[in-house]
Write the structure tokens for this entry.
Amino acid sequence: MDKKFTDFGILYVDDEEKSLKYFEAIFEDVAPIYTATSPEIGYRIFKENHENIGLVLSDNKMPNESGLSFLQRVREVNPKPLRFLVTAYAELDVAVEALNSGLLYSYLSKPWDPNDLEHRMVKAMKHFALSRERDQLICEKAEVFDQLVMADKASSIGILSAGLNHHLRNALTVMRTFYDMLPYQMEEELGREPKDSSFWCDYYGEVGSQIKRMTSMLTNLSEGARASVLKVEDEIDLLEAFKKASELTLGKDLGIEVDFQVNGVIPSIAGDAQNISQMARLLFQESKSAVGSEGSIEVRLSSGSSGNVQIVIVDSGDAIAEEDLKHLFDPFFVRNERPEDLGTNLMACYLTVYHHGGTIKARRTRDGRNAIEISLPVKPLSEEQAQRSRRVLDQFSEFEVTSGNMGLPA
């Protein structure tokens, strides 16, 4: 077998130990071999090693659980490794039905012939390796596409921000001046309390909150636009930055539990420390708004395979509607469950991540919780790299990836 396939192992489950020893002795030079004498042991081995296993073979007739049932459980853990059922001739109808349903890649009749089995496993492993290469290519192209979409959105937000700030700041200044002067003017002209003081107090308070809201929105837009100018410094400790942001944002909220989870060694990054700290505070504000007075927030940090640092913030708040997730970073998107909130906070986070050369997206965890996932490079994009990304954006219309042109079997 080609050396590049030897990284992926083969798991064989059979209650006959002689069959397992025979299999391992014949094929140990082909690929790493995992064996198990029962579905229970095989399932445990697969759960622990499924990222390194390319093929799973299982005898069908075993005590306590059939091979088909075991392979079904294997597929639920990870559907990518290819599955073979080893069965007696009398059970071929069952194997064919499982093959047609998609549970099996293929099946083998007992007793199997070593040469035939090696040929079929090599063919299957090639198929598995090609499928992984295709999936990896699609993921890489999807990441490029995400970056290009972010570039386009960042550009649009920058133009929008500049226009809104120019036209609305002066109007808001006039409104704010009138708002501040109104109580003194009323007292001077009336010389007494208004007849319906509760009405004026409530109305006056509402006007003030709306002015504050618009001012905050414009401030976030303005700060987001300025995020493109980075004051880069080295040795930013992301864990420390997020812990400080948590204390500043949630320090007095005893009902909110924050759990920091660190996987491996997290490298320091280069970037704009002020922008990153502001981003962390805005992300905690978003989680706080979702959680309310009681709940939990998890902050997971890990080192990515491409040298980036991965940050995932998960909260226990009400689940965001699936159709809303892709719009969370739009500055004027209004959520059904929180109509009072605009997306300018998350938009500012979006722009900070983008201008550092990273990616940010909203998703659901497997257990249905809200999650914001960020990937930041150890070093931000240089201007030359940023220009190259913009050129790729212009050429993107020529880019196409489909499974049909990858030369893969259906």
